[in-house]
## 1
Amino acid sequence: MKLSVIGCGYLGAVHAASMAELGHDVIGIDIDQAKIDALAAGKAPFFEPGLPEILTSATATGRLRFSTDLADAAGSQVHFIAVGTPQKRGSYAADLTYVNAALEGLLPYLSDGDLVVGKSTVPVGTAADLAAKVAASGSGAMLAWNPEFLREGFAVQDTISPDRLVYGLPPEPAQAEASKALLDAVYESALGKDTPLVVTDYATAELVKVSANAFLATKISFINAMAEIAEVTGADVTQLSTAIGLDDRIGWKFLKAGVGFGGGCLPKDIRAFTARAEELGRGESVAFLKEVDAINLRRRQRVVDLAVEALGGQVNGKKIAVLGLAFKPHSDDIRDSPALDVAVQLKGRGANVVATDPEAIHTASRVHPQLTYEADPAAALQDADLVVLVTEWDEFRYMDPSWALPLVKTPTIIDGRNTLDATAWRAAGWTYISLGRP
Ligand code: UDX
């Protein structure tokens, strides 16, 4: 099929390349010339395992092309909108400027029977508004909502073999049938592998995405709240998590206590959800998400407080080695990263922060040039008064404590992800401090 993907950021670039990998003829469109040039040359503008390989192969075959001109969307049967919906400045609400601009720009190039497919995460009600604009254009095109559940670090795999597909279809039956047929053709490969499919209306499809992220965020903040209780009772939150996760109604996934969640989705999505619920007069229904956010932010503060305590209250001029900058491993994404937040806060207290990360130094140094960065963990650790692990890259998880010991000035480590082997670190001579554990 001929597809266009409007917006070649994280979601759009992965979607465009993955659809081409599945055999579709794809044009990726973005207003950022530098991004388009990089993608057209087969280069991923961010770190995502597997993406460079499929970009290179699909651009080489000509199945994947890139452009800055929306006119190049003409001739595609299905047009995905995959632009960002960032948090508005000074508010919790989502900023729909890019979504609206993408649709307005696309309208002149739509033909009868084309399908516009929303993939961006939007406040519930957006799809109906956009569908009205498509209808008013008189093009005969239709609109569907098809949320995306990809995880950074597994984005290609999650797009090519999703764990479920959700179609939010138009209310009019003939349009719903035609839209479904087009989406089925796009996702033929996944549907052939018996991927579960939920066919629903616009509002439900929009809510599936935000409620899934709200649930995941709540699960993490729940266990982090238990970590706070563990800290004043002498209990061990990692054992608590293991024990409650054994109940398969609860499960272990997303039950790992630590410095909390970050990234481009969970924090902004729960905030946008509360803002939208308030607009709808149902603020109280999701008021708990404000607590989820507050617990999450408190965990960052806890790591900073533990660092200050470990340094005997004297932070000024002390060298702190920060292991990790990305919001999670296998990513160079520093959006709302707890790791970077901790590093910046410690720097703000006068510490000489030297941070290291296998992938995120280039993104972090652009936003926070005041920190010192070292690509080599040994250089970051050299003469450190304190070590703080905040992103659980394998390089840090499996670091040999005996190797690290002679490098530092004071062998104290704060494990902000409860990921190290505490016994091994203590046996090697370290003072080991973690979250929610004695
Ligand atoms: C998330 C959703 O998982 C995905 O379905 C959605 O499409 C986009 O948002 P992503 O932002 O890539 O994906 O990250 P995810 O793997 O969900 O991790 C989010 C954050 O939670 C990370 O900062 C991670 O470190 C943290 N986390 C995760 C925990 O602190 N504890 C856990 O147990 C799990």
## 2
Amino acid sequence: MGTFKAIRIDKADKGTTATLTQFDEAELMDGDVTVKVEWSALNYKDGLALTGKAPVVRRFPMIAGIDFAGTVEQSSHPAWKPGDAVICTGWGMGETHLGAYAEKARVKGDWLVGLPQGLSARDAMAIGTAGFTAMLAVLALEKHGLTPASGPVVVTGAAGGVGSVAIAVLARLGYHVIASTGRLAEGDYLKSLGAAEIIDRNELSAPAKPLGKERWAGGIDSVGSHTLANLLAMTRYGGAIAACGLAAGMDLPSSVAPFILRGVCLLGIDSVMCPLPARKAAWQRLAADLDRGKLSEITHEIELDQVASLGPQILAGQVRGRTVVRIS
Ligand code: NDP
């Protein structure tokens, strides 16, 4: 057995360290599929793991990285054989199971999704957990009954990973998208993705009134806290907000008013433990409904040795769109 390159998280006297190192293949955890990892990505949660800012890593040593795309090397799982192109996101990778910033990964075959036709492994990671989550939110809004005819939709954290993919997909589907951002200088970028209107996130960050002027029929929120409370208070009668993030905080200082007086729904979105059928459906929709030109506009590429330095930047909201990591 040999070694492979990986970003290893270790416990230190104060907090944790993240180091690019050689990892021993014998230390890989249990799993019935071994994958040669080709691409990974940088997500908000990766920023938390790399910096140790929140206790997302729950086993040491850990290999960081919550999603990968690659090729099956070995498999004892009936669904997969050597040479298959696969995607893996979530399931505790980079948290409780050795993760994706590595040339090799061993996981459960039940966690994997086949690379959809029309997407390259790099495309899949340009989408990654953030883009997959954006699509889960779109699917939840559709299940609620939202259509472009229902009215405008708002996307918060617009210039981030979830936000950028959400805008591109919703605009392609014909929605009038209102993008909320703290980076008004990114206005041209957001318009190029398909945003019809751009609003300053400060408009949504003050404590919310129980009800406000009805501004949108639906929304996708990466921010949480007062922003989510304001989104709910400003949602039209019968509308829905899909909540997937906490970039501004875990709290939700809201009231029941939007729910009991306007029939507004709050839809929870989780990508980590999302069951396989829903994953497959979301990836198929991403292959069909995400414009590849927009995807490359969103995407910035880095090498494995640059990942650790970007951890603090994504937490500070300074990373635009999606960052793919070339592994091998
Ligand atoms: P990014 O850092 O790429 O995007 C987050 C965006 O939120 C930033 O770009 C910024 O957008 C905005 N933002 C950052 N800080 C603040 C703040 N203090 N107040 C208001 N807005 C802020 O992260 P991702 O897109 O990868 O993830 C977004 C969120 O979704 C995270 O909280 C993440 O943990 C969560 N998430 C949840 C998943 C799930 O399964 N539920 C899966 C994936 C992500 P702008 O500059 O445009 O304002």
